[in-house]
Each structure stands twice: as C-alpha cells, then as structure tokens.
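Project standup — Tuesday

K.O.: blocked on the structure for the chain from last sprint. Re-posting the sequence here as requested.
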Amino acid sequence: MSSFNRSQLIDGLRAIAVLAMIVYHFAWDLGFFNIVDPFIVNSGWWKIFAISIGSSFLFLSGISFWLSAYGGINFRKFTKRVLILISAALLVSLGTYQADTDTFVFFGILHLLSACTLLGLLIYKMPSALIILIGLSIIIFEPYLISDFYEPKYLAWTGLFSGSTGSVDFYGFIPWSSAYIFGIGLSKIIFKINGKGIWTNNFLFSNTRKNSVLIKTFFWLGRNSLLIYLIHQPILIGIIYTYMKIFML
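H.V.: unblocked you, prediction finished:
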C-alpha cells in the first residue's frame, strides 16, 4: 500500500470515529440538559458505544504514530504535534474548570494522547511482539494495581483509583493507553507484510468518487479530528440550548 493510501485509510477510519463521537456527545448533551434520561446515555449500549469510540481514536493514533515514525522521526514536526496536543488538552481543562470546578476534565482523551505520544517515542523501536505484550500487561495487571492511594487528582490520572474522579471526561492512563500501544504494535506487523502491507494500491474509492464534495468532506473530518473535537461540543450545546429557549419555555 502506498503512503498516500495508508494515510487515506487512517483518515477514513478516523472520520467514522469522529462522526460516531458527535452522535454520542449529542446524546450525552441531551441527557445533561435532561431532555432524555441521563442514565440511558451513560449506561448499557451507549456506554459500550462511548468506550468503542475512545478506543478507536487511541488505536488509530497509535497506527498514525508508527506510520509517521517508521522511516525516522522528524523531531521538529513531532515536537510541534506534542505541543499542539498539550495546548489543546490545557484548553479543555481550563474551559471545563470555568464551567464546573468539581467535574472539570483534568485527564481526558487529549491529555492521554499527549502522554501516549511521548510513550510511543520510547517503545516504537521495540519488537512488535514486545509492544503488544506491554499492552496486554497493562490490561492484565490493572486490577492488581488499583488502590485508594491514587485518589488525589494528581495521581488519579494513572487510572489506578477505582472510585469516581468526578470528571465529565476521564481517560486514565491505565488501561486506556493499551489501545494506543496495540495500534503501534499491530501496525508494525500489518504494514510490513511483504514490505508493502496487506492491501494493494487500488484503494476503496475511485478517482471519480474521491473528487466528490461528500467524499472530500468525509476525509477532511478525519484529517482535522482535533479541530472537530475542540469545536463540536460548544456547537452542539449551543444548538440544544437554543432549542430549549425556543421550544421549551
């Protein structure tokens, strides 16, 4: 598979995850404003849906890390990427802290992605089997590491406190980082088969379809997932709030 098609594949999969994220957050916001039962959108299949979305983003980010690193890391671009992620994570923390100091996001998915990106720098040269073993170890040994010692927020980011952190969006390093680690380990296997990968250069879309506005917009979502993540919630909340003001007086 050519590098273009690899990138296109990841962009397409990430776009699907972005659309799923918007659907879930819209449902969550409806629960937050008590338009629907909050319990429904925080349990059962909705909770599984949320977990699958977060895992997908992390897994795809791990794949993206490997695809950008296997030929050698451009540390200028790498540093820029990390600084953007950290800045975006701090922006989310500050914004949610202003909204509610008790439920603010102190270690959400952007904080986790920042940490995982630095972790990726340490492990990406390891054999793929060892990387996957690290991911499995995190999942297997997590129950044995949990302790009330990690209750304070400056330790709770580890994910090793079993109680509630109070945060509206929490992705503890353990076990969530395992999805990112699996992304790195498995992509080292997938994209090295026969030195090309398991797909041919004839990708999912013909040239004609790639030129359509709908397809271009779809892939744009995947390429700009960070931007969409930052702006979609204020937009959704604004829409719901406006609806409530007009129709629910």
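K.O.: great, moving the ticket to review. The chain has one domain: 3-247. Residues 3-247 form one domain.
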